[in-house]
Please model this.
Amino acid sequence: MRIEVEVNGKVREVTLEKTLRPARYLVSWDDRAFEVDAQVMEQSQHGMRLSLVHLASAEDPVSRKVYCGTVDRAGSMFVSVDGTSFQATINGSRNSIRAVGGGSEGDGTRLTAPMPGKVVRVLVEPGDKVEARQPVVVVEAMKMENELTVEKAGAIEEVRVSEGESVESGQLLLVVNQTELKE
Model:
């Protein structure tokens, strides 16, 4: 899974890959890669506490206590790492939709699931008008709720999922039509 994370005005593309070992992930950004053991210690509607162990070497692992608040409508979350707090903005492929092909199909965009998970809420119906960056679907993945937003204003043309449904990475969730708003 690839996401863009902005912290203090600097945007990084972060890649997360689950390894074959339980609770182990390969996290990479800026041409650096780290294997981490991630355990959810506590979770509530306001966020979650994690224990992250950077497995630099078997003899010298580095442990971090992390708190992540829930992602708000603007795609921001409060994060604290070992007591140092900052605001992070999640955007890019995780919270946006991508246009389908070119030509006449460019008038519609398709929102696909950025990762496997479960649809928690569908916030729109066919025919609803939506604004840029408006949340439309909430998908739970890796014990976190991810609020997916539209990139551009438009009208919901099709909703292909329902609450409680399991989705695969890349599965079509809904289609937004911008043509209707151009008139």
In short: The chain is about 0% helix and 60% strand. The two ends are 37 Å apart (CA to CA). The CA atoms of residues 53 and 110 lie 37 Å apart. The chain has two domains: 2-92, 95-182.
